[in-house]
Amino acid sequence: MRMSKIVRVSADLLYAGILIFGFYVIMHGHLTPGGGFQGGAVIATALALIVVAYSYEDLLAMAGKLRLIVQESAGLILFLCIALAAVAIGTTVFANYLANTGSLFGMTVPFGTNPGELNTGGVIPLMNIAVGLEVWAALGLVILYLLSGVSEKEA
Amino acid sequence: MIAAIIANAPALLIGIPLLGAFFSPLIGRISRDARALWVLAIITLTTLVGLLTAYLVYTGGTVIYVFGAAATTLSIPADSGGIPVRILLTLDALSALMVIITVTVGFSVILYSLSSDSRRSSLEAYYTLFLLMIASVLGMVGTGDIFNFFVFLEISSLAAAGLVAYKVEKGRAVEAGLKYLMVSMIGGIFFLFAIAILYGQYNALNIAMLARMIQWTPLDKLALVLMITALAAKCGAVPMHFWTPDAYSMAPSAVTAMLVVVSQASLYGLFRICFTLYGLSLSYVVIGWVIIILGLLSMVVGVTMAIPQKDIKRLMAYHAVSQTGYMLLGVGVGLAVLGDQALLSSFGMTAMEGGIFHIMNHAIYKGLLFLTAGAIIYQVGTSDLNRMGGLGHRMKWTMIFFIIGALAIAGIPPFNGFASKFLIYESVFAFNPVLSIIAMVVSILTLASFVKVFHSVFMGPPLPEFQHVKEAPHTMLIGMTILAALVIISGIFPAFFVEHLIAPAAHALADQGAYLAAVLGGA
Amino acid sequence: MFLNLPFFVVVLLALIGIATILLKRNLIKIILGVTILASSVNLFLVTLGYREGGIAPIYTLAPGGVMVMPTPHALTLTNIVIGVATTALLLSFAIIIHRKYGTVNVDEIRELRE
After folding, report:
1. How far is A151 from B362, CA to CA, in rounded Å?
2. DSSP calls for B274-327
3. Global ipTM
């Protein structure tokens, strides 16, 4: 059951905006309030928007259950591996071994008022990305499974 | 490499099953056998790391693991002003005992489950949830931080509820899962309320830090009541036991055996909060009697409800409620005399040892009983006691395992149930003879109930409709053999177990000062 | 008095939640009651974390002054995440129960009570 063309075009336009905002929230998790869960939830609303404006079948064609399951597992595994990799390096689990090393996300935070240096935070931005991946896939799966329960009943 | 594993064993103990859980949906895509092998490898690794951790604790004293710190034992950073700011694991002897119980039961149950659940059409999330449940129990017993305890409690509720409702084609399994999740969810919210109350007063979440500052203000009393309610509901003590028979009877048998361990972990949390968090600051006589009365109610109501049951797993579930009462009774007596050193050393410690020993024994023999019930249901296809009969001719090994479990739960020597119940009778008699006599009567009723089950399941002539029934598959038997062997070993050599495993655990529980010193340093 | 107002709201919300759970017979409404109860705890935690004049604990663009402790917010966020998962699971149970039993009235969902 699709909505009218006006709704669908507005949804198309909004869709990109929601995704960009979601990724922004995930990427800036270590600088602003927000992070993986919030950004992932924002991205999952984009999936919900597809269901509202188009239909359940359209969403299924766009983001299959299998793909979401793989994304969810990948996010969780990435998070855990980043945490456990500290053992291989020789520190404790969840230690921030990338901070202040100068490599990826390894810049030292500048002192004083500044616009926010994205390339800081060590493993925290990486973990935010992992959590974001997990959350949007998991919430997408929740939407898909709850809807499949409803639609099977009505059919 | 070895040194790194030893140093990080407590964290790996939770990390390995989590990693296994998250990989298993992906590996399940390859084939069912690959997933079975993967799950087996993960649970073996978890068991080894668990036993290693327990060994470290029993030989070297309380193990602290601080996440993300410069060193694993650095619970108080130098620049923090004496406040433990990081999340940490604190494993003392009691936690180590719970870890041993969890990994041994988990290992046998997974072995059993690999064949008992192989007939199920969809196993997509089954082992993910199973490993999550094991990881959450390990987290609950390992954590030294009250908020993380709440998080692991909720993970265990979610995973367990998903597993209880796993036989989704039956509406009744979902009904049981719903009931379980509803109780756990409301309990969890109460628990978080209590945490918020404590945090609002003392600005700390670390159990040791809270214990040092706690005052027994009216708000603390409210927090304790909320936490006891939540955890007593989660472990199935009597006024909140109504979910237990439903969840235990509807879940797949392997899950039921693990659910027993989840309930024991909640019991661990209850004891940890009473003894370590509040310690002598609470009015231990009143709270001790509250726990004793909860225990008495559980014992009596559980066993009387069990006798008329016709479903084998429902019957065993009510017995699980009743046995939980013994642990509450034993440890409750210990709590009631906590402040009185003379009484504590004359019978209080023995009572606590009995209660804690019973936690271990119960997890093992109850797991064994649920596994035998699962084997019977697997081969016969019904759980109705009135429709079974004469299975002793066909399922000899299952019958032997059932006898071992039944005699252990009834407290008959030389099985382990006797050893722990004897400690409880003896010490509780010194505290209050009436309690001890009630406990013995409950034990006799338990025996009567299991004699009835034994008679209706195994005795009598072989029934024609069960001609095709065979013995359970080998992996199921191996899982049961491990637990049965433990029942017998800990029954024949109780002194060894009490001296080396139980007594350190009971002392760790009673000795709040040692726990605080291990985390916060100083005396 | 005014600063204590949120605590009264917490108690009120908790009472509404508990009353919904105990008095309503519709499963969906009971699940909503649990969600309201969870929200009351979240409000409680956020209120505990409030300090008058405190600023957000972010290093960037910090104008100076007292930062609030982020722990209560972390606790709240964790509880929200747990709440999402539990609510989703409870609702999916409700869907399956409705399909099997044809009702969401808790008085009629009692096949397990013998």
Report:
1. 45
2. IIIIIGGGS-HHHHHHHHHHHHHHHHHHHHHHHTT--BHHHHHHHHHHHHHHHH
3. 0.94
| B359 falls within a domain | yes
Residues recorded for chain B: 523
What is residue C114's predicted lDDT score, i.e. its pLDDT? 53
Give start and end residues of each alpha helix (H) in B381-473.
Answer: 396-410, 416-431, 433-458
Total domains, chain A: 1
Residue B78, chain A, CB below 8 Å: the answer is: no
Q: Tell me how many residue pairs between chain A and chain B have CB atoms under 8 A apart.
A: 53
Burial of C114 (0-12, 13-18, 19+ CB in 10 A): exposed
What's the gap in Å between the CA of A65 and the closest CA on chain B? Answer: 12
Q: Is C49 exposed, middle or buried (0-12, 13-18, 19+ CB in 10 A)?
A: buried
Among all chains, which residue has been given the structure tokens 């019958």? B399
Give chain B's mean pLDDT. Answer: 89
What's the gap in Å between the CA of A45 and the closest CA on chain B? 24
Mean pLDDT within B328-346: 87
Domain count, chain B: 1
Q: Has this prediction a pTM greater than 0.90?
A: yes
Average pLDDT, integer, range B106-110: 92
Contact between B48 and B159 under an 8 Å Cβ cutoff? The reply is no
* Residues from chain C contacting residue A146 (CB–CB below 8 Å): 88, 91-92, 95
C5-51+65-101 CATH, one of 3.40.190.10, 3.30.1490.180, 3.30.420.40, 1.10.287.3510: 1.10.287.3510
User: CA B162 to CA B233: how far, in whole Å?
Assistant: 18
**For residue B282, how far is the Cα from the chain centroid?**
25
Kindly list the domain boundaries of chain C, sorted by start residue.
5-51+65-101
CB contact under 8 A, B68 and A77: no
- pLDDT at A1 exceeding the cut of 50: yes
Domain that holds residue A121: 5-154
**B523 inside domain:** no
Domain that holds residue B191: 2-516
Whether B119 is covered by a domain: the verdict is yes
The answer to whether residue B356 neighbours chain A at the CB level (below 8 Å) is no
Residue B72 lies in a domain: yes
Single-letter code of the amino acid located at C96: I
